[in-house]
Design brief:
heterodimer, A: alpha/beta, four-stranded antiparallel sheet, 10 strands, B: alpha+beta, five-stranded mixed sheet, three-stranded antiparallel sheet
Chain lengths: 281, 389
């Protein structure tokens, strides 16, 4: 195993960006993030000069403590959060420079899954899934809540895929947490995405359910070649599912590489000296 | 432990006991100020508690009327007979024959101030009756009363009164009983006005809703933030809400009666404008308090603002909007009862008339009607709102 490049002094090492070997040069990245920084209005510095690339078919797991900038980073990719500086390029299109219309077009190709599921709780499960198709239908149809039959068919198909087609006409609020997150996945699938952003998809769930949700993402990644960017709390989950890991600490990249390369020293660089690893099985 | 053990003053310090309030000059200054304020208030609002006692007799009839409002009535069943008595020497035509009660006068013509005897027969036995004098243009005055004997007859003497015209009529009326109870005319009038009041509130509320719903989206900070010039739109909308809300509907009603004339339409406009302000503010705050998660999720799908509103905002606010609207309608019914005082239509208009004309039983009917209808609506709207939220 290659020994990573260490910083000159021990203290500086913690914030040193440690890079693994670059990707094969022929593979076109689906996502390129260049010198991305985000400072919130209250002065909080969430991201500082973050750069990385993601190639097609990767399952990139972003790890780090709460507040390390993981969620901000994901939201900068589809500009739910407006970056302060830097560039984000998705599929060759500059997200940061996109107009409102272009941005909507880029967004509809990027599925997103949230920690709190973010379903419309009073609406039916089916309607929640159908909202994934909004980027493709004429906006005025929203006034009469119309979706074409083909979209309804696909929505039922996606619900079947996550195993809750029988709940299609129930209210989203009536579902358990795990079921709600599966609706969230079905909604993301409605977008026919090539890239899926998952923001702590299992953090609000019973740990025992973590694998059932992450397996869906793994299947999509492996069988359909969808690229996945996923924030996770637990290193054990990151190791199990990630093809590559990006670690943030205080808004800076502190590690970028293969899961197997995170040893004890790295672990403490990422999570701090006092951290102890817990495992989810 | 021996008493010689030295205390440790540096470590254990007795907590400082706050001085009792009566030691503080501030307490006395505050007390004096309060006395001065209330003394002036008493003077300036002209509180004379004695008036409550000395004026009691004026309000007495009203209190009595409250216990007996003009709600039902029954028609008296009367037997009537009449005979002409002409002034100025003209002889009236003879009595028309036929069964039933009949009246005979001692003389068919005469002059003012004469003594005339009246004989009646064919009435029901043993009833009280009234004698009336009706002049040429149908005005009546009471001449006296009588009792029919066992054969249904009576005799009475009258003095011919001083009236204009010559063709007079003496009428005897015996009330033999009463018809069935039926709703009084006042009840009909009051009910019609109450219905007008409820609909006045309905139309006013609807008008308020129609304007407040679209505007409230512009008055919600979390939605306008994403629009270009959002802060200006937000500020302008909230200003509109605050201005229309802070002008009392009664003042608006006066303005609108000048504009569109007296009547319910002015009331509808006044309630509509006022409701727009109050509902708009409540709606906007409901929108501001919604869960931002679904908005984020729908935006992430590439949805337009319209779609975000339809699928992420509307489902979250509909129950609250309905609850606020029902409450507003309920409040508007209460309010539209007084809008009539300034000519804005509804039950207040006739209530004011009854009070001004000292028609206490009728006023009591209107008040009871208001109390019952508002109480019922209050209860109904509370039940509906509880179900919704």
């Amino acid at each position: 195993m290659r020994e990573p490049v260490r910083g000159r002094s021990g203290r500086a090492g913690a914030h040193e960006i440690i890079r693994e070997a670059p990707h094969p040069p022929m593979v076109e990245p689906i996502l390129r993030v260049e010198h991305l920084s985000k400072v919130y209005e209250d002065g909080t510095r969430a991201l500082s000069d973050v750069s990385f690339e993601v190639v097609r078919g990767e399952f990139l797991v972003i790890i780090g403590l709460s507040g390390s900038g993981k969620s901000t980073l994901l939201r900068c990719v589809n500009r739910l959060v407006e970056p302060t500086s830097g560039r984000v390029v998705v599929d060759g299109r500059d997200v940061t420079a996109a107009s409102r219309t272009e941005l909507r077009e880029i967004r509809r190709g990027i599925g997103m899954i949230f920690q709190q599921f973010n379903l419309v709780r009073r609406a039916s499960v089916l309607t929640n899934v159908l909202t994934g198709d909004l980027g493709y239908v004429p906006p005025v149809w929203a006034v009469v809540n119309y979706f074409p039959p083909s979209a309804v068919g696909r929505a039922m198909g996606n619900l079947e895929r996550v195993g809750i087609a029988d709940k299609a006409y129930g209210r989203a609020s009536a579902l358990s947490g795990g079921q709600q997150q599966r609706v969230g996945i079905a909604r993301a699938l409605m977008q026919r995405p090539r890239l899926i952003l998952a923001d702590e998809p299992v953090a609000s769930l019973d740990p025992a359910l973590s694998h059932s949700i992450l397996k869906y993402l793994e299947d999509l990644n492996r069988d359909e070649g969808m690229t996945i960017l996923c924030c996770l709390h637990f290193l054990s989950l990151a190791r199990r599912y990630g093809t590559r890991i990006l670690a943030l600490r205080d808004g800076r990249t502190v590690f970028e590489g293969r899961p197997a390369d995170i040893d004890d020293a790295r672990f403490h660089e990422i999570y701090g000296e006092r951290a102890e690893e817990v495992e989810i099985r | 432990m021996s008493p010689a053990t030295p205390a440790a003053p540096a470590l254990v310090r007795a907590p400082r006991v706050p001085a009792p309030w009566y030691r503080s000059w501030r307490a006395y200054a505050g007390l004096l100020l309060a006395v001065l304020i209330y003394a002036y208030g008493w003077h300036v609002t002209q509180i004379h508690l004695g008036e409550l006692w000395s004026g009691a007799r004026l309000i007495g009839p009203f209190v009595t009327a409250l216990a007996a409002p003009d709600v039902v009535t029954r028609t008296p069943l009367a037997q009537q007979a009449s005979a002409p008595l002409y002034y100025g020497g003209e002889i009236p035509p003879g009595p028309s024959g036929g069964g039933g009660p009949a009246l005979r006068l001692s003389q068919p013509s005469g002059a003012i101030g004469q003594r005339v005897t009246v004989h009646g027969e064919g009435f029901d036995a043993g009833h009280a009756g009234t004698l009336w004098w009706e002049n040429q243009i149908g005005q009546r005055q009471q001449l006296g009363s009588f009792h029919t004997d066992a054969q249904g007859r009576f005799d009475a003497a009258i003095t011919t009164p001083d009236v204009q015209g010559t063709h007079n009529l003496v009428i005897a009326e015996v009330v033999t009983g009463y018809g069935p109870w039926r709703p009084s005319q006042t009840l009909g009038v009051v009910t019609a006005r109450m219905i007008e009041t409820v609909f006045l509130a309905l139309m006013g509320t609807t008008m308020g809703v129609v304007f407040a719903v679209p505007l409230s989206f512009l008055g919600a900070r979390n939605l306008t933030r994403q629009l270009p010039a959002g802060a200006a739109v937000y500020g302008a909308t909230r200003l509109l809400f605050n201005v229309t809300r802070s002008i009392e509907a009664l003042v608006l009603a006066i303005i609108f009666t000048v504009w569109v004339g007296l009547g319910p339409f002015a009331g509808v406009l006044a309630l509509g404008v006022h409701s727009m302000g109050t509902l708009g503010k409540l709606y906007s705050e409901a929108i501001e308090s919604i869960d931002a998660g679904p908005i984020e999720a729908i935006m992430a799908t590439g949805a337009t603002t319209l779609q975000v509103v339809r699928y992420a905002v509307v489902p979250q606010i509909v129950p609250q909007f309905i609850a606020f609207t029902i409450y507003r309608w309920d409040a508007n019914v209460r309010f539209s009862t007084v809008i009539g005082f300034v000519g804005g239509g509804g039950i207040g208009f006739i209530l004011l008339q009854y009070i001004n004309l000292l028609q206490w039983p009728q006023a009591a009917t209107a008040l009871w009607m208001i109390a019952i209808v508002i109480g019922a609506l209050d209860y109904g709207s509370a039940v509906v709102r509880e179900r919704l939220l």
